[in-house]
Amino acid sequence: MASENDSSFTMETASVGVIGLGLMGGSLALGLAGKVRRRIGLDSDPKAGPLALEKNVVDEVALHLVDLVVRSDLIVLATPVRTILATLRELSKIQISDDKVRIVIDIGSTKADILKEMDALGDRYDPIGGHPICGREVQGVRFAEPALYKNATFVLSPASHTSPRALAAGRRLAELLGAHPLELAAADHDRLIASTSHLPFLAALALVQTAIKIPSAATLAGSGFRDTSRLASSNLEMMADILLTNRGHILQALEDYTRHLEEIAKSIREEDEAHLKAMLAEGRRARQELIGPSAPEGKR
Amino acid sequence: MASENDSSFTMETASVGVIGLGLMGGSLALGLAGKVRRRIGLDSDPKAGPLALEKNVVDEVALHLVDLVVRSDLIVLATPVRTILATLRELSKIQISDDKVRIVIDIGSTKADILKEMDALGDRYDPIGGHPICGREVQGVRFAEPALYKNATFVLSPASHTSPRALAAGRRLAELLGAHPLELAAADHDRLIASTSHLPFLAALALVQTAIKIPSAATLAGSGFRDTSRLASSNLEMMADILLTNRGHILQALEDYTRHLEEIAKSIREEDEAHLKAMLAEGRRARQELIGPSAPEGKR
């Protein structure tokens, strides 16, 4: 639990340790430049740290996990989900001599498994789950951009012993990045995101798997194909971890998706024009509702 | 067959009649401004003609089909596919008093049915099938933009009695719009486009159908969802006609697609990490091959 002196936590005076200097962690750290006391980075790739320093993504690089933890008031876990889980287990084993209770937030794309591990962190940490709904299909700190989080929804999922202090820090972190904080229980997050992010990825994956089998298909791949398949270029490790830590919700979404595809195929096979048109009209309406009226539609 | 005087055909001195002043026909006509002798428009919506005149999309509006045909050297069919089929049947019935052989090109998204109808057009017309691989999910002449066709692949599918003159006109039309002409047999076009355009549309449709059933899903719909689902907002009449005139190839593509989805689901269900990662890696590689190395990846 947060001790008395911890209630004085402010992002502006905090040392922020970021574990994982990829596109997401790097962009987060870059977006905090000048907004926190200092930014400390750590990455398993020995080339990431020097590049992050060179690009002003971080102010300092930590030597190892304990070094980063000792120097940080707020720890951001920005690796693939299963590395986040392993790091949380490491954190609970570290012997810390000071009496500071460190805030820990992750930015992983599934929340239930992470929150379970956060609940087991012990009282030396004040954890909160996070998931910013943004990204790009490029990898590495060299693509870090401070505006990546701008206007994104930043989900905050409290653990069972998340303090008001950690929740406020999560909100402030989101705001400093230009994102919009949204509190959501882990189970709800994982169910919704299975349909809005994990299923789109799998739909894109199966699409490229299908098209690549057709010789010369590339000749006729226009911007419609490019956009629909974009997520298939996502980071492999990140996606594998997501798929394996949100299996139940994803399998349910895939089942529903396949059922809709079968209904569509049936109406085409049977030339059921009325039903086909009803589905198409409903699809247009549904997308409008899901995306919002403001979305400008690009050229394809 | 083309008579002697017809070999003198040039786009620059041609009167071009455009049937269907929607986004596609309107943008085509607008892109020809100043590049042909005159542009004549016709649309079933009485409001489209006046708006097209006001926006300099066309120079003149025809009263009806016969009026447009009489005044045109080149006729562009830019309506949904089944309306193109009906218009081709109308064309063959028209009694024309001059001895001009008019070039007819369509820009419909499926080619086999249209080419069959073009073959039955008779010797008063010199037909060629066309399909520019571009578009947007907005409708109507008010969205017409001269650059819509720029850098798009413009498929040209010869009918059995397409003359070199019509083929050259098709190529020239594409070039004047900034597009890249590509000759492709109708059957090949329809097979390829089923995977690169019609399947992506159906993948997007089933995606919004699935997501809309999850209350509050819109909360977590980011740009990944927006792009993957974009085609679900396509023009309803246009898509219904496409689906119903390319049924065989589309059903085959859907079958392959569903098989890939089932293989993905199986590897997630069984936590077969090695196979899952192999599919993800292959998906990234396949997309790169289908899209080309130059495609810049957007923010999601």
Task: Give a quick set of tags describing it.
300 residues; homodimer; disordered N terminus
Descriptive notes:
The structure is a homodimer of 300-residue chains. Chain A is α/β, with parallel strands linked by helices. Chain A is 48% helix and 13% strand. Chain A has eleven helices and eight strands. Chain A has helices at 23-31, 48-54, 65-71, 81-93, 112-119, 164-176, 186-212, 223-229, 236-245, 247-269, 273-291, and strands at 15-19, 38-42, 60-61, 74-77, 102-106, 125-132, 153-158, 180-183. Chain A has an eight-stranded mixed sheet with strand order 3-2-1-4-5-6-7-8, with helices on both faces. In chain A, helix 4 (81-93) packs parallel to helix 5 and helix 7 (186-212) packs across helix 10. Chain A is elongated, with a radius of gyration of 21 Å. Residues 1-5 of chain A have low confidence and may be disordered. At the A-B interface, helix 7, helix 8, helix 9, helix 10 and helix 11 of A face helix 7, helix 8, helix 9, helix 10 and helix 11 of B.
The percentage helix of chain A is: 40-55%
What oligomeric state is this? homodimer
Radius of gyration of chain A: 21 Å
Summed up, the helix count of chain A is 11
Largest chain interface and its two residue counts?
A-B, 98 and 98 residues
Layout of strands and helices, then pairs:
2 copies of one chain form a homodimer.
Chain A: E1 15-19, H1 23-31, E2 38-42, H2 48-54, E3 60-61, H3 65-71, E4 74-77, H4 81-93, E5 102-106, H5 112-119, E6 125-132, E7 153-158, H6 164-176, E8 180-183, H7 186-212, H8 223-229, H9 236-245, H10 247-269, H11 273-291
